[in-house]
């Protein structure tokens, strides 16, 4: 087992579940809530980052590291599909007639595809901010 520390610069890698990453990114898009992936002390070489919704949290020292989920996906990641985009696609297709039911079904499919494809756009490394400056770590995707 690795040595535990109050210093987050000992972190070499974080492991995140696909579900937590998708939920954090989707939360920001759908509800505007500040969801992050939180790494809690004590810190060691390999850490797990879990879904957390930021609030007025008060922490003892050392504070957990909050990783912005957008820093964990490459620029090539698809944008979260909006209902307006889905509606526009249906209305632009001359072979389809718009209906609320069709809109709902198409949007649910688009979101499902976004969720399924997001894991292939996770970065290999990211940078976290520590008291001693920026620190690059590896990112491992679980599931």
UniProtKB/TrEMBL annotation:
<protein>
    <recommendedName>
        <fullName>DUF8009 domain-containing protein</fullName>
    </recommendedName>
</protein>
<feature type="domain" description="DUF8009">
    <location>
        <begin position="2"/>
        <end position="143"/>
    </location>
</feature>
<feature type="region of interest" description="Disordered">
    <location>
        <begin position="74"/>
        <end position="107"/>
    </location>
</feature>
<dbReference type="InterPro" id="IPR058322">
    <property type="entry name" value="DUF8009"/>
</dbReference>
<dbReference type="Pfam" id="PF26033">
    <property type="entry name" value="DUF8009"/>
</dbReference>
<feature type="compositionally biased region" description="Basic and acidic residues">
    <location>
        <begin position="88"/>
        <end position="102"/>
    </location>
</feature>
